[in-house]
Amino acid sequence: MPAANRHVGEIRTPSTALGGVTVRVPAKVNLQLAVGPLREDGYHDLVNVFHAVSLFDEVTATEPADPGAGPITVKVLGESADEVPLGEDNLAVRAAKALAAAAGRTYRADLLIRKTIPVAGGMAGGSADAAGALVACNELWGLGLPREDLMEIAADLGSDVPFALLGGTAIGTGRGERLTPLETSGTFHWVFALAEGGLSTPRVYGECDRLRAAAEAGVPEPAASEPLLAALRTGDAEALGRALANDLQPAALSLRPDLARTLDAGRALGALGAIVSGSGPTCAFLARSGEHAAELATRLADSGVCRSAVTAVGPVEGAALVP
């Protein structure tokens, strides 16, 4: 098994301060997102190369403090917390309820989400929180379900949730939920330019379909990029930068033309690769080194093309209990 993915199934001692369990879960960047033709069910077949990076949310599950509260409650702190839906629309709440349903019992928990991953930013923050809730509640409730069972529940919640459990670098097929870990060498250094506001993933897919229909060109079946897979195997950052690809990028730029200026700025500052992350609007830049990433982040933030810029490395492990 590749070193980047050795965490799968790893047993850790959880944090149980005040009866709670805390799980740390990473953001993702799509190194390749190949989108096939629109299917009759409204989905697209994808080839999605996921890469987990060191921007983390933390999800803490505790026994309810208020006996009269609902079975699952959620509170959100941190990055754009006021933009995160609460109640039934919160994916972490849905994950906890799905886990309880799978166990065949009624369970209760208070969830506290501390966010660093941007909201609606194309980095799967909501999916990360769902994965964190699955792992935290599985531990809090003493269910003992193996990671494979949690992956099945995750796949029903959303295409990105299983990868948040897995971490490392992996290729996703189908809707992106069928995962195969990829061999990856070394560490890659990233800068993420965070934009004002977010982008709706369904809206970006709809714009992708509209642009393709307007072009009246055939849409090929998605396929993995061999140059990209080779760059991951060898740890060649320059080759990886050249191979980055996202079929949703034209749609994201159509909806948010300002992102083109952000991408151009990063390229001008020497980024090895520049890409819209997932459905956007976060832009990802591959740097030569940690020092280059720090310089690039500072200069991007100072240039006014984004609201802020942060550095990260990848690949990192998926959802993991905090000791």
UniProtKB/TrEMBL annotation:
Keyword terms: ATP-binding, Isoprene biosynthesis, Kinase, Nucleotide-binding, Transferase
Pathway info: Isoprenoid biosynthesis; isopentenyl diphosphate biosynthesis via DXP pathway; isopentenyl diphosphate from 1-deoxy-D-xylulose 5-phosphate: step 3/6
RNA-binding recorded as keyword: no
GO biological process assignments: isopentenyl diphosphate biosynthetic process, methylerythritol 4-phosphate pathway; terpenoid biosynthetic process
Location of the active site: 28, 160
Record carries keyword Transferase: yes
Chain residues that bind ATP: 118-128
Record-annotated GHMP kinase N-terminal domain positions: 90-168
Enzyme class: transferase
Documented EC number(s): 2.7.1.148
Reaction(s) this enzyme catalyzes, per UniProt: 4-CDP-2-C-methyl-D-erythritol + ATP = 4-CDP-2-C-methyl-D-erythritol 2-phosphate + ADP + H(+)
Family annotation (SUPFAM superfamilies): GHMP Kinase, C-terminal domain (SSF55060), Ribosomal protein S5 domain 2-like (SSF54211)
Any one GO molecular function term: 4-(cytidine 5'-diphospho)-2-C-methyl-D-erythritol kinase activity
InterPro entries: GHMP_kinase_C_dom, GHMP_kinase_C_sf, GHMP_kinase_N_dom, IspE, Ribosomal_Su5_D2-typ_SF, Ribsml_uS5_D2-typ_fold_subgr
Residue ranges annotated for the GHMP kinase C-terminal domain, each copy included: 228-303
Similarity comment text for this entry: Belongs to the GHMP kinase family. IspE subfamily.
Chain's role: Catalyzes the phosphorylation of the position 2 hydroxy group of 4-diphosphocytidyl-2C-methyl-D-erythritol.
Name the UniProt record assigns to this protein: 4-diphosphocytidyl-2-C-methyl-D-erythritol kinase
Protein's organism: Thermobispora bispora (strain ATCC 19993 / DSM 43833 / CBS 139.67 / JCM 10125 / KCTC 9307 / NBRC 14880 / R51)
